């Protein structure tokens, strides 16, 4: 290759890197929130209008982790699309008296209830009804994380191999918030309805928590969702190293404090 060709190649590579580089701004105030709470993790806020990110720890924000119970959002979408449940109010899970981790899981449920109490047995049943073939098709269609499901239909979001980053979570959730995912408006609206957390006078908060503890060296706590404010959408994702269940409230506390610092809530 001559000198001119080498120069052109270098320009092409530089331009390519700029195109694929994240528009991510590190925020010092959010970094201080993490330091104050003595936690390791990342927080990202995504503005789909200009495809920009602001938050803390861009490197970790691009790293994939098991989605844990945040996957219940997507499991709900897929189950409705596959028609294994007709709507979010259909009672699809029948409790048969087996020992469960939480008392709130020991009852019959629909999607509206199951997602609120993060009812793992109910969502495992859904996944089995959906089946591996359909699940893989939908994960590919959503372009969800590394798109790897492994061989266990009721474990892949809890124990892997499925992984997703905070950046990827926030981008998919922005599409759900705007009803731009490859599902009907009715299905997306139903899932929006069951993930509603707070309806403030000035903003509305949707979201879901998760805690990945199985088959992992350092457990990871998640809180993902979006804010609707002034006819705009802002999606977010936080994940934290979280070894003790006593620390779980920090997922939402740090996320909300970060959202306040940014003037979103």
Report on this model:
The protein has a 7-stranded mixed β-sheet, sandwiched between helices. It has helices at residues 3-20, 28-37, 58-61, 72-82, 111-116, 120-130, 132-142, 156-159, 166-177, 185-194, 249-261; strands at 24-26, 41-47, 52-56, 196-199, 204-212, 220-229, 232-241. A hairpin with a 7-residue loop joins strand 5 and strand 6 (220-229). It is built from 11 helices and 7 strands. By secondary structure, the protein is an alpha+beta fold.
Short structural summary:
With 265 residues, the protein is α+β, with helices and mostly antiparallel strands. Helices cover 42% and strands 18% of the residues. Strands 1-3-2-7-6-5-4 form a seven-stranded mixed beta sheet, sandwiched between helices.
* Portion of residues within helices: 40-55%
Q: Kindly provide the radius of gyration, computed on alpha-carbon positions and rounded to a whole number of angstroms.
A: 20 Å
Overall strand count: 7
Strand line-up in the sheet with most strands: 1-3-2-7-6-5-4
User: Stretches where pLDDT falls below 50 for ≥5 residues?
Assistant: 11-19
Q: How much of the sequence is in beta strands?
A: 15-25%
Judging from the principal axes of the Cα atoms, what is the shape? globular
Tell me about the biggest sheet?
A: 7 strands, mixed
In whole angstroms, the N-to-C terminal distance is 56 Å
**SSE ordering:** HEHEEHHHHHHHHEEEEH
Quickly count the helices: 11
Give the class from helix and strand content and strand pairing: alpha+beta
Average residue-wise pLDDT: 93
């Amino acid at each position: 290759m001559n000198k001119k060709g080498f120069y052109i190649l270098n320009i092409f590579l530089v331009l390519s890197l700029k195109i694929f580089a994240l528009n991510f701004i590190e925020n010092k105030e959010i970094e201080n929130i993490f330091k104050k709470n003595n936690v390791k993790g990342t927080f990202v806020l995504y503005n789909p209008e200009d495809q920009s990110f602001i938050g803390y720890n861009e490197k970790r924000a691009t790293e994939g982790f098991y989605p844990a119970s945040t996957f219940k959002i997507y499991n709900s979408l897929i189950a409705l699309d596959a028609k294994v449940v007709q709507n979010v109010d259909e009672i699809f899970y029948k409790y048969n008296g087996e020992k469960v981790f939480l008392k709130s899981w020991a009852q019959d449920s629909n999607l509206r209830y199951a997602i609120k109490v993060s009812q793992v047995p109910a969502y495992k049943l859904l996944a089995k009804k959906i089946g591996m073939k359909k699940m893989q098709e939908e994960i590919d269609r959503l372009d969800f994380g590394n798109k790897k499901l492994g061989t266990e239909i009721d474990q892949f979001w809890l124990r892997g191999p499925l992984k997703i980053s905070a950046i990827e979570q926030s981008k998919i959730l922005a599409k759900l918030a705007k009803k731009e995912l490859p599902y009907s408006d009715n299905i997306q609206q139903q899932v929006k309805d069951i993930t509603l957390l707070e309806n403030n006078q000035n903003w509305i908060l949707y979201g879901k928590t998760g805690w990945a503890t199985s088959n992992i060296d350092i457990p990871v706590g998640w809180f993902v969702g979006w804010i609707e404010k002034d006819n705009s959408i802002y999606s977010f994702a936080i994940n934290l190293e979280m070894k003790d269940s006593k620390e779980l409230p920090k997922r939402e506390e740090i996320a909300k404090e970060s959202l306040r610092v940014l003037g979103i809530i």
